[in-house]
Design a protein that fits this description.
Blueprint: E1 4-5, E2 8-16, H1 20-31, E3 40-45, H2 52-60, E4 67-71, H3 77-87, E5 93-98, E6 101-103, H4 107-117, E7 122-130, E8 158-160, E9 171-175, H5 177-181, H6 202-212, E10 217-228, H7 236-253, E11 261-262, E12 265-266, H8 267-286, H9 291-313
Parallel strand pairs: 2-3, 2-5, 3-4, 7-10
Antiparallel strand pairs: 1-2, 5-9, 6-10, 7-9, 8-10, 11-12
Helix pairs in contact: 1-2, 7-9, 8-9
Length: 315
């Protein structure tokens, strides 16, 4: 049963897959949020094979904000996120974070202030990568932290009007009116990610759609989460693979059909790949900094070619 205060219903949701060992800390941190209005916690279990359901059942019996949980049997982050929307369709505000994060005090207050007082349809906050569990590699510069979902646009709130300052579902809240008024406004299955696979982009696709449709999007520096990154993501291989997948998704879903092609590939994209590769070789030979970033560009260009080719095979 949802709790309300002054007619407002707040749902704090997260989707989870095989991270039972993190749930107690996560739920405890959510319950320690101080806010004058009651709120509920919603967990979407996406077919976890560990003891997630047992842990959630035990946590639901503890004092504090009520926790309810459901299992979404269709595998994938898109199905899980859309299930959270449907489960919260009667709420006034839906707050999303991920199961590998911990919210800091003030997150709910920041989200509610932006939506209820400033009139935002969507509000996102800071995501800080937490290296307390695994050592940060020497090659992982600040310019790469955004690819681990880090977000920090400063200490002052502002309205987001361009794609240069995206906000992620790692720390975001929505006025549920936008989803009730448009049942087709949901996370796009073309940008799905299943289990621990790499890539996806469903949250960026939603952000870009809201931006295109001129919904009011706000940045709130008072909404902060700590993002715990698993050790397998702290490798160059992960960054390369992530960018190949990102390019593949872009090539398949965003690129138009081109007439000027070579062996079925756009000629300009082949040229772009060769330029990126040549630059990567030069940087490697001279041992200049920025080598990993350039190879990420190569991987993205390759992914675009692969995605474009796969799209045209299905036409």
């Amino acid at each position: 049963m949802k709790l309300s205060f002054s007619g407002k219903i707040i749902t704090f949701a997260f989707c989870t897959f095989n991270r039972a060992n993190r749930l107690e800390k996560l739920v405890s941190a959510i319950r320690h949020q101080i806010h004058p209005w009651p709120f509920e916690i919603l967990a979407i279990n996406n077919n976890s094979q560990d003891n997630t359901l047992d842990v959630l059942a035990a946590l639901s019996k503890l004092p504090g904000a009520p926790l309810r949980f459901v299992t979404e049997t269709k595998q994938g982050i898109v199905a899980a996120r859309n299930r959270a929307i449907e489960e919260s369709i009667g709420s006034d505000i839906l707050i999303f974070i991920d199961d590998d994060e911990v919210p800091l005090p003030g997150l709910i207050a920041g989200a509610c202030d932006a939506i209820l007082n400033d009139g935002a349809d969507c509000v996102g906050g800071r995501v800080r990568v937490d290296f307390s569990q695994y050592k940060r590699p020497a090659w992982l510069g600040d310019d790469l932290l955004g690819f681990l979902a880090e977000v920090d646009y400063g200490d002052y709130p502002f309205w987001i009007t361009t794609s240069k300052t995206p906000v992620w579902t790692a720390n975001i809240a929505y006025d549920m009116t936008i989803f009730r008024h448009d049942p087709s406004l949901r996370f796009d299955k073309r940008y799905d990610r299943k289990g621990k696979s790499v890539g996806g982009g469903e949250d960026l696709a939603m952000f870009n759609l809201l931006l295109k449709e001129q919904f009011k999007i706000r940045y709130s520096p008072n909404m902060i989460v700590l993002h715990s990154v698993e050790d397998w993501k702290l490798s160059r291989r992960y960054f390369i693979k992530l960018h190949f997948k990102s390019g593949e998704v872009f090539g398949r879903n965003e690129m138009p059909r081109y007439s000027n092609t070579l062996l079925g590939y756009p000629r300009f994209l082949i040229s772009q790949l060769l330029k990126h590769f040549a630059k990567a070789l030069i940087i490697t030979f001279k041992n200049n900094p920025g080598k990993i970033r350039q190879y990420m560009n190569v991987a993205h260009a390759l992914g675009c070619l692969a995605g474009y080719k796969s799209k045209n095979k299905t036409l």
